[in-house]
Design a protein that fits this description.
By secondary structure, this protein is an alpha+beta fold. It has a single domain, classed as Heat Shock Protein 90. It contains 3 helices and 5 strands, in the order E-H-H-E-E-H-E-E. The protein has a 5-stranded antiparallel β-sheet, covered by helices on one side. The longest helix is centred in the middle third of the chain and has 22 residues. It starts with a strand and ends with a strand.
């Protein structure tokens, strides 16, 4: 199978589960050590961001992890159906997650999803 699709509760305890799923899948496809390390960090940060920011003011929600092989690496999407990308003056984080993701990926795109929510699309070399 050239893709992994998993859904997790948008909670902090889902971060290691999502990271393990992504690493196991990429390892089976022969990803290099540097790629695995970058993938682990980026998936952890993206899922943690969804857990903290996506569903504030709501009971609960999910975060979806989708990974696909590309010709020269992997594309990873972490998405939610939360409140979307809105400023948060009461943010409990330090604001380092997205810059860190940008640093360890080949490219990263953040976009809104319909009817609400956020998608983080990341690309990694093989």
């Amino acid at each position: 199978m050239n893709r992994l699709s998993r859904c997790f509760p948008a909670r902090h305890r889902s971060v290691p589960d999502a990271r393990r799923a992504a690493l196991a899948w990429a390892r089976q496809r022969g990803a290099e050590k540097d790629t695995l390390e970058a993938l682990a960090l980026a998936v952890s940060e993206a899922v943690a961001n969804a857990a903290v920011h996506a569903y504030r003011g709501q009971e609960t929600g999910n975060v979806e992890l989708l990974i696909e092989e590309t010709g020269d690496g992997f594309e990873v999407c972490v998405s939610d159906q939360g409140v979307g990308m809105v400023p948060r003056t009461d943010s409990p984080g330090l604001g380092l997650g997205m810059p860190l993701i940008a640093r360890v990926t080949e490219s990263v795109e953040v976009s809104s999803t319909e009817p609400g929510g956020t998608r983080v699309r990341m690309r990694f070399a093989g």
